[in-house]
């Protein structure tokens, strides 16, 4: 849904209505944050939903446990993706890259601590992801609000609460477009759970999936 900002911020920046970029980003924050609450039941009831779909009990229970610990990461998306679009529309990709590098280093450190030193297993890996994604949010927010974007960030504004209905429609349309593309890979993972020795099959496909999109993301 944050991809709607690519159109709006690009148009505003081209028209030299720089202050509107910050307002559009705040509207996106509001819309996406509210939508995060609508999706919470999928995290809270991941285990029974997966069992209902016929997934093995061990896969469903572990997935449900990890899903609960990934709720903080889920809410970070509502802020992180609009911030990315906000900066990229101003050709500040280098800022996103440097902040991502810091988040990567934090993720390596926290993963080592939580998984290997303290032995928290997959829960530790989930918490490490939570921390690193919020580092991304904190880094980009600090840059935008501490003088890095003097023309496009003029502070919080009540204008962000106007036109939310139209903004929601545009965001939803953009979200559906991307979901139809990405659900293909999620369906593959779900179908893998029906194979014999599903745990190994899901693990292998997940590694491939993450590696594939890391490569694509770096190219983009």
From TrEMBL:
Q: Name one GO cellular component term.
A: membrane
> What are the protein's UniProt keywords?
Membrane, Transmembrane, Transmembrane helix
What residue intervals traverse the membrane? Answer: 29-46, 66-83, 95-114, 120-144, 156-177, 183-211
Decide whether keyword 4Fe-4S is in the record.
Answer: no
Picking any one GO molecular function of the record gives: xenobiotic transmembrane transporter activity
The answer to whether the entry has keyword Coiled coil is: no
* Entries under Pfam families matching the protein: MatE (PF01554)
Query: Which PANTHER family is this protein grouped with?
Result: MULTIDRUG RESISTANCE PROTEIN (PTHR11206)
Query: Record's family?
Result: Belongs to the multi antimicrobial extrusion (MATE) (TC 2.A.66.1) family.
Supply the name of the protein. Uncharacterized protein
- This chain's source organism reads Linum tenue
| Biological classification of the source | Eukaryota, Viridiplantae, Streptophyta, Embryophyta, Tracheophyta
